[in-house]
Amino acid sequence: MYVCEEEKEYYKQLKSEESRLGEDKVKMARIQYRGKGLYIDEILGGDK
Questions:
Q1: Per-residue b/e over 12-41, b at no fewer than 16 CB within 10 Å?
Q2: What are 8-45's pLDDT values in tens digits?
């Protein structure tokens, strides 16, 4: 399949924007849930 340079740049930019949005969502989730989780040892009852 042949894609002209303009189309190639368009899709590259679109993918970049989507990637950046995903990274922003991850950052916001980390901030929102920071300190609210449990370590795996706490979940499995590792209080030995």
A1: eeeeeeeeeeeeeeeeeeeeeeeeeeeeee
A2: 999 999 999 999 999 999 999 999 988 888 888 888 88
